[in-house]
Amino acid sequence: MFLQYTEDQGRALGLGGWVKNTRQGTVIGQIQGPVQRVNSMKLWLKNVGSPSSRIDRAVFSNERDVSKLEVQGFSTRY
């Protein structure tokens, strides 16, 4: 459920990226887009999530500027 809500939020913000469950029970992904929209998504991931999710922590790493989106649309990977 968290993945679907995350995908919907990414699309609503017009971001590029993906999200995926890990074998460790965590979620990983990639977000691309204008800084303000990426920051909005990061706040959503850190504080809101899906209605049934429990967010223990959110870690964002490997942040960099890109001149154009490398990922079109926002999707769930399996």
Automatic annotation (TrEMBL):
The Acylphosphatase-like domain, residue ranges: 1-78
Superkingdom of the source species: Eukaryota
A single GO molecular function term of this UniProt record: acylphosphatase activity
Signal peptide: none
Gene3D superfamilies xrefs: 3.30.70.100
SUPFAM superfamilies: Acylphosphatase/BLUF domain-like
Record-stated family: Belongs to the acylphosphatase family.
Protein name as it appears in the record: Acylphosphatase 2
